Amino acid sequence: MSDLAKSTSALRSRGKKALVAFLTAGYPDDDSFADLVSASVDAGCDVIEIGIPFSDPIADGPVIQAASNAALARGVTLRSVLQQVAKLSSRLSVPVVCMSYINPILRMGIEEFADEAKESGVDGVIFPDVSFEESGAFRPSLRSRGLAYVDLIAPTSNGTRVRAIAGASSGFVYLVSVTGVTGARSAPLPSGVTELADRVRAATDTPVYVGFGVSTPEQAGEVARHADGVIIGSRLMSLAGDGNAAHAGQRVGNFLSAARKAVDAA
């Protein structure tokens, strides 16, 4: 069992719903990004998901696309992200998961990436543009280093596919709440999300976390009543980029503190 799986399983056994912060690496800048990580942990996040900037993030909406482009313009790379994670992870008390599109991984090489990710303190990975059928090319290299491979399940997945993906995922199952890209949404989440979360949880012992579109503490609380955890990303990146970068950590931390209360209340 990976360290991520041990951590998420322990949370569920204690009856605690997880709160996950997605942060684009190197955004708004390296120092502010480090502040965002610290603020997220201080606000009560149980997992930090770090997005590797990529030029064509097909699963992401305008907010995370803009954050990725800004980080890339500053020269942020996969290797530089792992180096920064190594500096941060030694003082973090929660697991770190890297979300990356597959091109940067292929360019580095899966074996080299797995070695460097493990050495830097990464606990798990998410590859949003790798299908379940193609994932077998990457799982063994990651598993042999003790890295969790987190699978995504879309709302369009049928029962057979849900069971197969949920049974393979390690650490947690990432349940996508919408048939679309990431992005903050003021409207209520689709009514089918809670039903799908219940269905996926019934298919696996692995904790089920819901992401994409969770934008308010109220939405986080509603999702937490049906899932094992909640992932928030675009709203955080919007807050991080909305104003003085030096105060980004405070803005994000305040929001996550409110989300933490809502999730705990659920």
Name some characteristics of this structure.
266 residues; alpha/beta; TIM Barrel; 9 strands; globular
List how many beta strands DSSP finds. 9
Widest sheet: strand ordering? 5-4-3-2-1-9-8-7-6
Largest sheet: 9 strands, parallel
The radius of gyration over CA amounts to: 17 Å
CATH class: Alpha Beta
CATH topology: TIM Barrel
Proportion of residues in helical segments: 40-55%
Distance between the termini: 28 Å
Instruction: Identify the overall geometry.
Output: globular
- Our count of helices gives 12
Which band does the percent of strand residues land in? 5-15%
Order of helices and strands: HEHEHHEHHEHEEHEHEHEHH
Q: Which homologous superfamily in CATH is the superfamily?
A: Aldolase class I
Average pLDDT reading = 92
CATH architecture: Alpha-Beta Barrel
Low-confidence stretches are none
Number of domains: 1
Structure classification: alpha/beta
Oligomer: single chain
